[in-house]
C-alpha cells in the first residue's frame, strides 16, 4: 500500500506501491500530500522530484527535509479511496465524526445530530468508540443500527457513502465497523464501546464514514443476501466522515 518513511537520509521517501501509483498524479495535483515539515516536491504540479521505484507500480515522491513524520494527508474521498497513508507511529490517535442528518431524508424522519469519538492508544490496542447522538424520538426505544461505510463521500447525502467498509471480504456482521444496535434513551444514544476496527495502517477507518440507520440490524440472521451485506438495517438517517481530531481539543 502506501507508506510514509522518515529517516536521517537526505531524501526521505513516500512510496506508492501495490497499484497505488496511478493515484500519484491526481493526489499531487490536488495538493494534498504534505509532511510535518516542508512540502512534497513533484514534477506533477508542485515542481520537484518523482522517480519510479524498483518494484512494479511504485512511485517514489522525494521530500526536501529529513524530519518527516510518519503521517501523510488523506486522499480526497471523491477519488474513490479513503486514504493515502495513515498513522504508523505507536503514539495514540484520536479521531472524530460530526453526525448530521441525511440531506436526502424523507419528511417526518428523525433528524440525528451529535458526534462519534474514536481513540486508539496504539496499532495493537482496541479502538475505543464513544457515541453522543441526539434527535431520535423521545418516546421510542426502536433499536438503531450503526456501521462504518466505505466512503467518506457525502455529496449525495448518506447514499454516497457506499456499502459497509469490508476490506477483508467477509459477511456481515463480521465487518470491522459493524457496531450493532443501539437503543436510545430519551431520544439520545450515549455509549462507549471497544471495537476491532483500527485508526492505524492500511486498514485504517480514517476517511470512512459512520451511518446510523432507520431500523434494527438483524446481525446476519435475516436469511437473505442483504442480511449478509448490511443486516437489513433500512434507510440512512444520518452520517459523518471520520477525521483526525485536533490534539489540542
UniProtKB/TrEMBL annotation:
PANTHER family to which the protein is assigned, alphabetical: SUPEROXIDE DISMUTASE CU-ZN -RELATED
Purpose: Destroys radicals which are normally produced within the cells and which are toxic to biological systems.
Lineage: Eukaryota, Metazoa, Chordata, Craniata, Vertebrata
EC number annotated for this UniProt entry: 1.15.1.1
Keyword DNA-binding listed: no
Residue stretches making up the Superoxide dismutase copper/zinc binding domain: 112-242
Natural source organism: Cirrhinus molitorella
UniProt entry keywords in alphabetical sequence: Copper, Metal-binding, Oxidoreductase, Zinc
Pfam families: Sod_Cu
Catalyzed reactions per annotation: 2 superoxide + 2 H(+) = H2O2 + O2
Annotated family: Belongs to the Cu-Zn superoxide dismutase family.
Protein name: Superoxide dismutase [Cu-Zn]
Amino acid at each position: 500500500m502506501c507508506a510514509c518513511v522518515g529517516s536521517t537520509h537526505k531524501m526521505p521517501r513516500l512510496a506508492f506501491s501495490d497499484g497505488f501509483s496511478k493515484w500519484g498524479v491526481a493526489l499531487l495535483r490536488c495538493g494534498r500530500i504534505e509532511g510535518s515539515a516542508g512540502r512534497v516536491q513533484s514534477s506533477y504540479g508542485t515542481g520537484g522530484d518523482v522517480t519510479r521505484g524498483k518494484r512494479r507500480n511504485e512511485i517514489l515522491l522525494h521530500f526536501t527535509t529529513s524530519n518527516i513524520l510518519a503521517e501523510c494527508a488523506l486522499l480526497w474521498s471523491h477519488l474513490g479511496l479513503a486514504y493515502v497513508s495513515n498513522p504508523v507511529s505507536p503514539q495514540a490517535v484520536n479521531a472524530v465524526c460530526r453526525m448530521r442528518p441525511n440531506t436526502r431524508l424523507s419528511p417526518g424522519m428523525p433528524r440525528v445530530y451529535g458526534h462519534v469519538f474514536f481513540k486508539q492508544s496504539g496499532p495493537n490496542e482496541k479502538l475505543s468508540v464513544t457515541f453522543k447522538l441526539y434527535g431520535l424520538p423521545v418516546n421510542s426505544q426502536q433499536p438503531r443500527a450503526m456501521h462504518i461505510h466505505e466512503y467518506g463521500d457525502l455529496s449525495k447525502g448518506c447514499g454516497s457513502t457506499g456499502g459497509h467498509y469490508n476490506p477483508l471480504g467477509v459477511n456481515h456482521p463480521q465487518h470491522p465497523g459493524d457496531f450493532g444496535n443501539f437503543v436510545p434513551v430519551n431520544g439520545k444514544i450515549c455509549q462507549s464501546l471497544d471495537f476491532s476496527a483500527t485508526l492505524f495502517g492500511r486498514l485504517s477507518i480514517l476517511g470512512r464514514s459512520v451511518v446510523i440507520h432507520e431500523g434494527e440490524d438483524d446481525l446476519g440472521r435475516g436469511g437473505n443476501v442483504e442480511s449478509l451485506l448490511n443486516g437489513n438495517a433500512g434507510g440512512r438517517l444520518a452520517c459523518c466522515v471520520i477525521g483526525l481530531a485536533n490534539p489540542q481539543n
